[in-house]
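[job 0417] fold request received: Mitochondrial substrate carrier family protein B
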Amino acid sequence: MYKEEGIKGLFRGNGLNCVRIFPYSAVQFYVYQKIKFLLLKPGDTELNNYQRLFAGAMCGTASVAATYPLDLVRTRLSIQTANLAKLDKSKVKAGEKPPGVLHLLIKIYKEEGGVLALYRGVWPTTLGVAPYVAINFAVYEQLKEFAPDSSPIMKLLLGATSGGIAQTLTYPFDLLRRRFQVLSMGGNAGELGFQYNSVWHALTTIVKTEGWRGMYKGLTANLFKVVPSMAVSWLCYEEVKQWMVSL
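[job 0417] inference complete; emitting structure tokens
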């Protein structure tokens, strides 16, 4: 990627990702706190692990529903200028300017099936995000109970650990999410090297053609992103929450 697109290529789509992550995280933490408040019994201060998993799954689902079209566009933009021979129909040609966010949203809406097209791949995404967020929140809250202190460094470590565990356990669904989001970019069936009719068909096809390791293709690179991002995310959440409570 660096050789073909330079430094800018490494950050392609990051501006949109920043636009997406604000409402995504806001919805996620807000819904979690609301559900936590509803589930807490009189006298309790913390949820049990089953309640944490449920609250995490609900807030993960809500955040996907609120921001999925932006996630779809982000994925498209991040690969649309890549030098992939099988994407000749959809990729940006040499010298052409990549499409803007609004332009791509309108293009997907008009050419690929309206509102439903903007949510193509939302089912496998939700299947992945719901358990990922559930495990992330449950593990973080559990680890926090055993933490020797509540320093910023400790919060970073807890966030990194919970994010890494959650991502590893649910990564196959993240793989499905990205593949479903780019399926329509290949044009005719098979141009991308894969074609799926459903989530189950995708899972069985990947296992048959790529083996069980195929379900975790790209996990290492993904952890390099998720681990530090979740560490910082949890630290910011805890610090902002503490600051707001003190007001």
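[job 0417] notes: The chain has two domains: 1-120, 131-246. The chain has a mean pLDDT of 84.
[job 0417] exit 0
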